[in-house]
Each structure stands twice: as structure tokens, then as C-alpha cells.
Amino acid sequence: MSTSDNDKQTQPKRIAIIGSTGSIGCQALNVIRRHTDLFAVEVLTANTNADLLVSQAIEFQPNAVVIADETKYQQVQQALAQHDIKVFAGEGSLADVMEMSTIDTVLTAVVGFAGLKPTLRAIEYGKTIAIANKETMVVAGEIVTRMAVRKKVAILPVDSEHSAIFQSIVGEWHNPIEKILLTASGGPFFGKKSDFLETVTVADALHHPNWHMGRKITVDSATLMNKGLEVIEAKWLFDVAPQQIEVVVHPQSIVHSMVQFADGSIKAQLGLPNMELPILYALSFPHRTADPVPHLNFADHPTLTFAKPDPDTFVCLRLAYEAIQRGGNMPCIMNAANEVAVAAFLNRKISFLQIPEVIANAMNTGLFVDKPSLDDLLQTDAEIRRQTIDYLKNK
Question: Which DSSP category does 205 fall into?
């Protein structure tokens, strides 16, 4: 049992984790393991990793599990037959299960566009959202935030950078934000130029110096697209203009982000690079919960450095700013093309430097919609994926 200041919480919060077998999902379960007095697992979902989903379900005994890959349904159902756990399958079930009245908080830990529909369904049914799926806010930030306001649903950021911004503005609700300083580690290729990047391998791109993340996010970090996605996410989460968001490269990943207020004061949130801290903060909010993970010792980090990013070399960051400045469905176009391009790179079908080339082509040729509906965004995502796959076939 942990010690905390959650005196008013008499029953554990019931957590649904969308994407429990991924990096964020597994780390969230580590947090819950340490705080079973505060949190209980209500729903677990996975895309294709049936074995790990079954293992997690047996340990945490949720009310229900969902395996998106319908071909894995029998495997999961049979493995959990001796347990009082409901088993569902299919992408539709990922959204349908969000209607369960027994869920208090939904942690959206799935990667990519797949997180949009279940997140919207969870908001529709009044669940608190702990959001680690940045693509949902990138693609449909206006729709998501508008629905959250209408349903009076809290959206609590889990990304370390957005959690840092959120923690910096708690208690500052009436003080104008002048600028958000969004920190970036720079990834494995910080300081490198295009001639070096021409020959990098998948293994090189997946070797992040500070963070242990999933493959797609790690490649996004290497291209700086991850930071571009975070710029767009920050615009919607914190209701600021893109020009109020400045990316700062901070290779040590100790300062997770900063907020500069109108009087010139800057507040920052610092800590070791460990995703379990922002996960715990989001799940515990509005309280802070004592936790035994390693704490920062400044004597071990005597030098903290900051630098400007290089958008001429890391073109993806510039493309993200262009996408959010144009607005409409352009961030959706950019995101869909990026997901296809990163998958192609991971499958060794294109080079590292071709990733921004593929995205730029989609942004230049995709059908632009100024004020997209949800149906427009779903259609845009599907069409851009088809177009980008066709474009890659001719490469």
C-alpha cells in the first residue's frame, strides 16, 4: 500500500487502458501494481499481442478485455475461460467498451489514428481522459476539445512534455501564457546534417539516447516529427496559437517543458526521464502520490543545455508547423502520411530522409478541407493512406 495525500479517495479509480500491451500501457500497469489501493484495472485492450494481453488480464483481473485483431479472439477467449473476464474482439469493440458505466478514467495509450474513435466514445460517455495518444489531438483536436467542453470531461495529458506544461500552469489559470517552451531531446541524431542522415539504418533510428518507447514513436523522435505532433497537441490542449509554442532542444531530458507567463516568469517541471511519473500524475490528479521510482539528484546532472532545433535538416518539424498553420484537415493529412512513411522505413522500403519527402508529397496533393467534420477526417485518413501507399509503390 502506498502513502499519499489522496485522503478523500475511498474507492480505487477504475482504469481502462486502450493499448495495454504497448510501452505506455505496460508502464501504466507498473504504476497500478505499486498503487493497488488507488487504482483498479477495469478494461485492457490490445491490437494483436494476444499473449501479453492474456498475461496482463490474469494478473489484473479486469472486467473486460478487447483484442482488436479478430483472428486472435478464440485464443484470448479460451485462455481466459476460467476467469470472470468478458472478452471482445474487433476495432468496433475498442470504442463500444468505452460505454461501460464502471470505468472512471480512460488511459489512451494506443499509438496512431486508431486511438481517435475510442477516445471520442469515452468522452461522449463522460469518462476522464488521460491522453497519451497524441495523434488523436493532432488529427481532431478541435472536435475532441469541443466535445470535452460540452460533456464537461477533463483531458489530462500523459506525454512528459504536456504533463510538464500542465503541471506548470496548475494554480496559474488566470495568468496569461506568453509562450510554451516545448523541450525535445533531439533524438539519436541531434547535431547531425543531411549527409549523415542519408545512411542511417533502422537500428540507428531506434537507438534513442534517453527514452524507452515503441518503434513508431522512437522513429518520430529521430525525425523530430514527434515534436511536431506535440506542437499541434499543445495548441489544442492549452488553447494557444502555434507561434506561442517554441521547441527547445534539451539533450539531457531533465527539464520536460516550461511555460513563460506574460510577466516574463518561467515555470518548469523537472525530473528523470521516466514516463511512469507523468502517468501517475494524470491518474492521481488533482493529487500527488508518493512513489518509489528514482528521484532527480541535481549533483548527478550538473550541466543542462538548450539549443534551437534545425528545421532545415529535420524537415518534419517544419512540416508540422505548416500543417497546424493551414489548419483544417491538413494535420490529418500529415499524420496519415507519416504513419505510412514510418511503417515503410521500419520495413526498410524507404530511407530515413525519404520520410519527410513522402509527407510533403501528401500535404501538397491531398484534398484540403477547411472545416472538416469527423466523417471528413475519417475519409481523409483513409484516402491519404491509399494515396501514400500508391506513391511509395512508384518510388
Answer: H
Q: Render 213-256 in DSSP notation, one character per residue.
A: --HHHHHHHHHTHHHHHHHHHHHHHHT--GGGEEEEE-TT--EE
302 alpha carbon, distance to own chain's centre: 30
Q: Is the pTM of this model over 0.90?
A: yes
Q: What three-state secondary structure class fits 25?
A: helix
User: Which among 319, 361, 355 has a CA at the least distance from the CA of 339?
Assistant: 355
Residues 6+ apart with CB under 8 A from 364: none
Q: Which residues contact 8 (CB under 8 A, 6 or more apart)?
A: none
- DSSP β-bridge partners for residue 155: 129
Residue of 178, 253, 157, 243 whose CA lies nearest to 208: 253
Q: In angstroms, what CA-CA distances link 235 with 58, 134, 141, 145, 324? A: 40, 12, 9, 11, 9
- Burial class of 210 by CB neighbour count within 10 A (0 to 12, 13 to 18, 19+): middle
Per-residue pLDDT reduced to its tens digit, 216-251: 989 999 999 999 999 999 999 999 999 999 999 999
CA 333 – CA 351 distance, rounded (Å): 21
Instruction: Report the greatest alpha carbon distance in the chain.
Output: 61
Q: Whole-angstrom Cα distance, residue 17 to residue 10?
A: 22
Query: Position 297: which residue type?
Result: N
